[in-house]
Amino acid sequence: LTISGTGTSASLSQGTEITISSSVSEFCRCGYDPDQDKTALIADVGTDGFAWALTVSGTNVSASSGVQFEEGKVPFEQPNMCYDNKNKKFQILWRQSPSGMIRGQTLTWDASNARYNGYSGTPPILWNNGYEGSISIAHIKDTDGYICHYKRSTNIMYARLITCNASGSTITAGSETQIHASYAYASGDLAYDPSNEKMLLIARGTSGYIDFKVLSYNVTNRTVSVDSTTILANSSTNPSSNTFVAGGINGAFDTTNSIFVASFAKSQSGSYSTNQVMALQRPSTTLDATTFIGFASSTVTDGNTATIKIAISRAQITIRLRF
After folding, report:
1. Which of 30, 90, 201, 264 could join 213 via S-S bond, C-beta 3.0 to 4.6 A?
2. Helix (H, G, I), strand (E, B) or coil at 53
3. Three-state secondary structure readout of 163-231
4. pTM recorded for the entire structure
5. Strand pairing partners for 18?
6. Residue 12: is its pLDDT beyond 70?
7. Is the pLDDT of residue 224 over 70?
């Protein structure tokens, strides 16, 4: 798909459709690899996990041969993946039903065969017992860490921080953090905010409300915590007494404008035809002793360069650059 124009005048056009697999396939997920300028596609074919490398030329796309990568640990259900800019690979999580085991796998670029290969060892069980539904995962930029979000059979949502080395031979899961207080039916979507070094989550939370959470993390200790929660849709913003999600809860971070763009469907008197898109932006950093850098030498307007006389020591400059 290509986009022309902006705002309400924007339009979509599509290229030629191709058949990648002739077998029964589902749970398709795509991720972009900026280092190879390729898109990786993963899918469940039958009960097996396969990966393809997609190449885009204009409005057309071509695919490599498929590579089976789950090493026989099937069925392969509800996968998701993200690109790791530090280790230049894709990190995958999937649910092996009906046992509810969550497994991880790594995809790396195979230049000699122009395709993505999985780590050849047995994909490890990261955690077990009663996990179901979709899984979200996002990479913490410039680290070996990833945050994932998922649902247990108790209909309560959780998050974990996992770490993985470059080859995918060692994957370690941190402790589980409960994200929603009670009944929550569906998973959500994660995106990393590099400006504020936070993970952003949109999900169907308690009582079916759509909420937006800001998550903090510690990669070394593999921990996750909730900074704040904002309700985006509930009974007060919808005539129906229950705001349920019909499907796709999606989010992406716009690094150019520092905005988290989220989309979801919500019920309207029993119908799931109401779709909503929101652009969410974190508030400015509060000015205090830890964020103050110095005074501008003269008046400055938006979009122009400011010269600031530094009022802190050189050792503190690196710490405060992000403010």
Report:
1. 201
2. strand
3. EECCCCCCEEECCCEECCCCCCCCCEEEEEECCCCEEEEEEECHHHCEEEEEEEEECCCCEEEEEEEEE
4. 0.81
5. none
6. yes
7. yes
